[in-house]
């Protein structure tokens, strides 16, 4: 077995006897990146001069949940999907995986995954096939979500806040100053002076 760095080894160790979980966001990130790779490859492919219908669609359409699109965006998205591009197929496979998290029992989710995986590896889109195979290799991790229904969204939120503080400060003279700032903002301290009641 190749030697892994300590940080990568740490996530393999069960915490309090519970197996490692793959968060919904991590899986969605991998699937979203696969859709992005397919879109970029399709956009770079030689096409007719007037055939630039994929330009400017990344932020507008492929990264958002269909329910969050405006009526105008929905019409544009429907028109693009009817052309049958590879990006639309990749997006449909990504969206289909959302049903995985709605199952209650791990066995039902595993059965759904088998059907989704068969569709994913037959799609002839390399980035999607790569993500599908990665998920199959690590399938026990996403399946561990079902008994506990726990995600790491809270810790990711703290991480995001800490990174924003780090970026806003543009550096610190010492780790102690950095630690103090994190505790101050993430601890939600109330520093208003308490006035005695009359």
Please describe what this structure looks like.
This protein is mostly helical. It has two domains: 12-148, no CATH class; 153-186, no CATH class. Helix content is 60%, strand content 0%. It has eleven helices and no strands. The protein has helices at residues 6-10, 24-44, 58-62, 71-82, 86-96, 106-121, 126-137, 140-143, 145-148, 153-169, 175-186. Helix 2 (24-44) packs antiparallel against helix 7. The longest helix is centred in the first third of the chain and has 21 residues, at 24-44. It is extended and about 70 Å long. The chain starts with 5 loop residues before the first helix and ends in a 12-residue tail after the last helix. The model is unreliable at 1-13 (pLDDT under 50).
Produce the secondary structure layout.
Layout lengths: L5 H5 L13 H21 L13 H5 L8 H12 L3 H11 L9 H16 L4 H12 L2 H4 L1 H4 L4 H17 L5 H12 L12
Helix pairs in contact: 2-5, 2-7, 6-7, 10-11
Put the structure in a nutshell.
With 198 residues, the chain is mainly α. It has helices at 6-10, 24-44, 58-62, 71-82, 86-96, 106-121, 126-137, 140-143, 145-148, 153-169, 175-186.
Strand content bin: under 5%
What is the molecular shape?
A: extended
Helix content: 55-70%
Low-pLDDT segments: 1-13
H/E element order: HHHHHHHHHHH
Distance between the termini: 71 Å
**What is the structural class?**
mainly alpha
Total number of distinct structural domains: 2
């Amino acid at each position: 077995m190749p030697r892994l760095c300590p940080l990568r080894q740490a996530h393999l160790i069960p915490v309090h006897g519970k197996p490692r979980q793959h968060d919904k966001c991590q899986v969605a990130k991998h699937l979203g990146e696969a859709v992005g790779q397919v879109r970029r490859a399709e956009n770079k492919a030689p096409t007719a001069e007037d055939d630039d219908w994929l330009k400017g669609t990344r932020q507008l359409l492929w990264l958002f949940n269909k329910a969050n699109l405006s009526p105008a965006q929905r019409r544009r998205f429907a028109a693009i999907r009817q052309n049958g591009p590879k990006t639309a197929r990749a997006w449909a496979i990504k969206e289909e995986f959302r049903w995985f998290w709605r199952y209650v029992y791990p066995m039902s989710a595993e059965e759904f995954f088998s059907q989704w995986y068969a569709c994913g590896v037959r799609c002839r889109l390399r980035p999607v096939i790569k993500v599908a195979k990665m998920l199959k290799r690590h399938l026990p991790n996403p399946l561990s979500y079902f008994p506990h229904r726990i995600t790491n969204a809270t810790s990711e939120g703290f991480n995001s806040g800490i990174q924003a503080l780090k970026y806003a400060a543009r550096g610190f003279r010492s780790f102690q100053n950095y630690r103090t700032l994190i505790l101050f903002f993430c601890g939600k301290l109330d520093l208003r002076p308490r006035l005695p009641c009359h």
